[in-house]
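Following up on my earlier thread - several people asked me to post the actual chain instead of describing it. Fair enough. Here it is, all 478 residues.
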Amino acid sequence: MSESPATVPEHEHLDRGLNPRHVQFIALGTAIGTGLFYGSSETIQAAGPAVLVAYAVAGFMVYIVMRALGEMAVRHPVAGSFAQYAGSFLGPYAGFIVGWVFWLELAVVAIADMTAVATYMGLWFPGVPGWVWMAAAIAVIGALNLMAVRVFGEMEFWFSLIKVTAIIALVVGGLALILWGRQVGGTTPDVAHLWSHDGFAPFGLWGIIMSFSVVVFSFGGIETLGMTAGEADDPEHSIARAVNTVPFRILLFYVAALAVIMSIIPWDEVTGESSPFVEVFAALQVPAAQHVMNFVVLTAALSAMNAIFYACSRTMYGLAEQGHAPRSFLHLSPRAHIPIYPVLCMFGAGAVGLVLFLVIEDRLFFFVAAIASFATVFTWLMILLAHWRMRAGMARAGVAPTGFAMPFFPILNVIAMAFMVGVIVLLATTESGRDAFFVGAGALVFLTIAWFTLVRDEGRAPIVLEDAAHLSGDSSRV
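Reply from S.P.:
Thanks for posting it. Predicted structure:
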């Protein structure tokens, strides 16, 4: 292995075309997706109303991860984000593994989103095969990601605005119905529904624990926010501001929204056949409201796919910069300055999803959700470790923390890492998660073999990241 820092030959660089408004809503787009609108039905069935505790606990862990990532992104705003950080602070092998595991995480989440699109469109066109809508979603989202990054940011802004507005309307309207206290559409909204149907935690502590695998999937991809640092025109302020809104988003969009849903419809009446959000409006028999909400959850799935295509392509670009992916992935389109080949690779991932849908349609969503949960907690664990090593190195060099330093370091790092290990153990020891654990562990073995057989020279050299103050407007890592 070379002892000298890796130096990437001169190549094209990504444009800084994302403004703070784009960054904020990209963060929202990844935080509010299919896991909330579709997967929450399974978490409700697993834990009952106590699922609110699971979302709050997991949400706090997510905030710790995002503060760690945010501190690194503010100090080193580079394309590739945490794959670069892992490569710099934990070693090139770790950077290779983290980058490709994160790509796997988002690729399978994209398949889950595609599956949800097929389900939602089935409400309107029950006679059309689901794979048709999946193919259409791939085509539309892929085309958007071949345009300039500012176009992507603008589309994600509007996608996210629709679902954020809908959730706020649901919370406000639901609270009004609860206070009204009159029967609407065959159900009487009441906060007492949260504890009057076999108690607040009908399945006890184990029910809460069992829900964590899908709850973690719901938050998976929120770390995409760190990917925007390489193309944000003011990363120091926009990244910090977006990270600090994570607790509010989790409380409003997950805890408050699901509490309102279970107050309107008792938790044991949530069927899981469609989105709980759609079921609420169907039960209330509000004219056309079911179709409006179906449009919203469809938009949410497309928004999540949009953010995933972006993050996966930038991950591949960052991996190519490190010598961990083909150098052709560094090639940008002449006008839009988009990494063309990484985006095209996402079309291939979508095609794999189509094949899986045709083979295991009835259980595809929750199978890929479990795989994504493993990849998600592994990625989060490595982010926390990289942050810890960064802070340790800064302490040895006598460098003061940034203005966006992790609070209570390293106590919060330890708490969050223990949680991540616990989720991995849960997947490995439960019937519903065991297959996903073996797929994830197998991916780590495969990537390790790839590292030793395919990565050479530049890819094995140490990575040196410049501080934000030294960057000259591009997203190069060195």
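Residues 364-397 form the longest helix (34 residues). That should answer part of your original question.
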